[in-house]
Write a structure and sequence with these properties.
The protein is mainly β. Helices cover about 5% and strands about 45% of the residues. The protein has one domain.
């Protein structure tokens, strides 16, 4: 089962993690510099809950945006 929301198909998206060096300007430094970039993944906030899907009760992964938005019917 892939790690995605069953309603909106939200999955992990790629991004970068930056390594910085130096003091920032607003603290009196010369400015921070980026000295390294590493690839990472941003995961959606998925919850495993029981939902009522087409008349049948099913346990599946749903993101919190869909739960709060009322797009599902809890069992």
């Amino acid at each position: 089962m892939p790690k995605e929301c069953i309603i909106c198909k939200k999955t992990a998206i790629p991004g970068n993690k930056y390594k910085r060096r130096g003091m920032i300007k607003r603290k009196g430094g010369a400015g921070s510099k980026i000295v390294g970039k590493t690839l990472r993944r941003f995961y959606p906030n998925l919850q495993r809950i029981k939902i009522n899907l087409a008349g049948t009760v099913k346990r599946s992964l749903v993101c919190t945006c869909c739960i709060q938005g009322g797009k599902i019917l809890k069992a």
